[in-house]
Write a structure and sequence with these properties.
This protein has 243 residues and is an alpha/beta fold. It is built from ten helices and eight strands. It has two domains: 154 residues, 3-Layer(aba) Sandwich (Rossmann fold), CATH 3.40.50; 78 residues, DNA polymerase, domain 1. Helix 1 crosses helix 4 and helix 4 packs parallel to helix 6. The two termini are 30 Å apart.
Length: 243
Amino acid sequence: MRFEFILLDADETLLDFKKAEQKAFAGTFRKYGIEPDEVLFQTYDRINHGLWAAFERGEISKQEILDRRFRETFRAMNFEGEFPGFEEAYQTALSEGSDTIPGATEVCRILSGISRLYLVTNGVGFTQRRRMKESGLEAYFQEFFISEEIGFQKPQPEYFRKVFERIPGFEREKALLVGDSLNSDIRGGEQAGIATCWFSRYGFPEESEAKADYEISDLRELIEIVETGNGRRGRKKDRQAEA
C-alpha cells in the first residue's frame, strides 16, 4: 500500500458545500423577511470569499469572518434595520446541509478499510461536525482537524504541524492530502512535505503556483492512487479551484 494516512478536505471534496450554502443563504434571508436574489448572493459571495482568502493568509481571524461577512453585505446592499442573530441562524441552517459529492461515501468506505482517514478543514467546528455526522461519513474517520479548534488554518505550517503531532505514528512519506483548493490544500501540503492530490472538479478559475502530485476529476480515482501510488500525475497548475 502506497499511502497509510489520508487527509481529506471537507467542502467541495466530500461535502457539497455549494448546495448547502445556497439553501442556507436563501432560507436565512427569508426567515428575516428578505427575498434573496442573484445580486444579493453575488454581493455576499464576493465579500465572503475575500474574507476567507484573508483568513487563509493569516491576516484575520475566523471570528472576524463571522462578524463581518453579513454586516458588510447588509451595508453594501443598503439594508436598513437590525438583523440580530443572523450569523447564528445561518450557521444552523448551513449545518443541515449534508449532501455529499458523488462517490464520497463509497470512497470513504473503501479507503477506511485500507488506510486511516482524517478530516482537514478550515470550516466552523459545530457546522462541520454536524454535517459530517448527518452525511454518514463521520464513522469512516479517525479524527477531525478543524481550523477553529486547532487554532491555525490551512495552508499555515502551524496547522499541519499540529495535525501531524496528533496522528499516532504519523509518517510524512506515507501521507496523502486530498482537496479541491490549490491554495489552502495543495500549497499547504507541499509546504508540509507530504504528497498531494488535487480534486479538480471545477477547473481553473484563479491563478496559483501550487503543483499537486496527483490530479483527479472523480473521487473514485483516489482508490487506485492510495492502494498503489499509481494515477494521473498532477501538472503545473496555472489556476486554482474555488475554495
